[in-house]
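*** Protein under study ***
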Amino acid sequence: MKENCILHLEAEGMTYPKVFLLSSFDLEKYDFHDLVDTLDHELPSHKRQDFLLSLPNISPQTLQKKKETLKQQMWKLTLLLGAASRDVAVILGPHVKSLSLAFNVPILLKRTHDYSKSFGLENEKLPCITH
């Protein structure tokens, strides 16, 4: 099937077409990991992150890629919140340090929830996993 697709695409003038054979019933079969690797290398960074985080947690490789993507996002968020906290403290004066923490906590809680969700660790599912 794959070779037939490649032959027809080449006959239409496409040089070196990339064709992936996938099964929606079993993603571990065929070329799913090759497709993920190709998109991981060829998508622009902002699209790559969204793509990787949308993948189902079907293999250790997928989980590792999600982990690396979230680590990158975590550093950016930390730097951004640190800079924002610094600006809030400077604008309001040196004695209002707790305000910057109050500003960051809701954002950090939301991101923590998002990270848990990316790995399939939503609170509703945890009791099922632990029993």
Remarks:
- The longest helix spans residues 60-92.
